[in-house]
């Protein structure tokens, strides 16, 4: 798991002189509360693949799930490096957070049960999963579950003052 409070670094090249580095706790709260994320994976031929999905923040990591036949699951069989992005579609206000890391399969039942509870708590009863044989089970089928521990994260403050913060995590 990543360290709880990495040191923030403000990048002056992309920040207003009035800006200060953001605290990781604020970015982690946004990751916890965000409803929608954009997942970037890499296809076997090297082209990027980006798709929206839901995710939960649990034990200082982002978690998402996908069907085993979906493009993102196929991509992850070859290359586990991913980027998860969340934020607001505005140039003049809000905050965006980008998390880079490795997507690692979660298969142990206690963790999967905790994550299934986290999905219901965050997204409601339509996102109820049972756990079976190292996967989530839903009326639509099985879903593989992945954990992304942040290796590097970026925060983009928009508006006044704008700023870019980078956090590096001990691995």
TrEMBL record:
EC category: oxidoreductase
InterPro entries found in the cross-reference section: F420H2_bilvrd_red/Heme_oxyg, Pyridox_Oxase_N, Split_barrel_FMN-bd
Region described as Disordered: spans on this chain: 1-22
Pfam families: PNPOx_N (PF01243)
Entry EC number(s): 1.-.-.-, 1.4.3.5
Keyword annotations of the record: Oxidoreductase
Name this polypeptide is given: Pyridoxamine 5'-phosphate oxidase family protein
Natural source organism: Streptomyces xantholiticus
Pyridoxamine 5'-phosphate oxidase N-terminal domain ranges (all copies): 28-126
Record keyword Phosphoprotein present: no
Molecular function per GO: pyridoxamine phosphate oxidase activity
């Amino acid at each position: 798991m990543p360290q709880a409070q990495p040191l923030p670094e403000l990048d002056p090249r992309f920040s207003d002189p009035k800006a200060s580095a953001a605290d990781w706790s604020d970015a982690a709260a946004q990751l916890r509360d965000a409803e929608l994320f954009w997942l970037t994976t890499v296809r076997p031929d090297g082209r990027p693949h980006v798709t929206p999905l839901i995710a939960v923040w649990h034990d200082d990591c982002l978690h998402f799930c996908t069907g085993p036949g979906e493009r993102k699951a196929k991509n992850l069989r070859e290359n586990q490096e991913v980027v998860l992005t969340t934020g607001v579609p505005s140039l003049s206000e809000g905050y965006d957070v980008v998390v880079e890391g490795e997507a690692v399969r979660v298969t142990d039942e206690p963790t999967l049960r905790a994550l299934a509870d986290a999905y219901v708590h965050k997204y409601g009863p339509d996102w109820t999963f049972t756990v079976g044989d190292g996967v989530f089970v839903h009326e639509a089928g099985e879903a593989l579950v992945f954990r992304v521990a942040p290796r590097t994260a970026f925060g983009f403050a928009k508006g006044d003052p704008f700023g870019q913060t980078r956090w590096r995590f001990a691995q």
